[in-house]
Request: fold
Amino acid sequence: MGKVLHASGSGYFPGCIEESTDSKYAVWPLEQAMQTYWRVRAWDFSANIVVRLFDYPEEGQNTDIPLESSVSDIRQEAEDEQTLVCYSEFIRQDRLDGYPKSGDIFFFPYRKVGDLYYSGLGGLIEDGQSNTEFAFWADNQTYPSAQFPISILGATLDITAFYLEDAEYESEVISCTASLVPSEWWSYGGTYNTSTGEPL
Reply:
């Protein structure tokens, strides 16, 4: 199989790669960074969080509640592999069991730090069933005190987590672990297993 390069400034993504010295962009080797855009067709998101409710159930008493969140099948909007050569993003808007669940995954500018790359993968995920909302991307500077780890293809990025319950008690997410796992891969004409991503 010949080497195919994209007709862009980088040759690897549908856009130029910015050089950086910031270690937060040193995420994946090039092959894995390219997988996030070119190889993965759909993702499954899951998270475990602990929310602290203050002054509950009576004044001066706090309580911690564990919650699980998941949003499945966050899918490429592209209909086939050929359309990936144009900028594309993942998007899912759906309702499950009467609860809104949504996941938007998108791509920021591509960056390179030494021999490691950041494909720009980021996302906003909301789970109405557990009243949680998540946001992740490598340059997330909005809430630096509320960053937790998310595992994606062997790398760890930062994720923020929020509890959206409309209650009279003040709350804070005190712990969160999350993962984004490929649930379907592009087949590229039947040359890859769509369940595992392995060559056939």
User: Anything to note?
Assistant: The chain has one domain: 17-181.
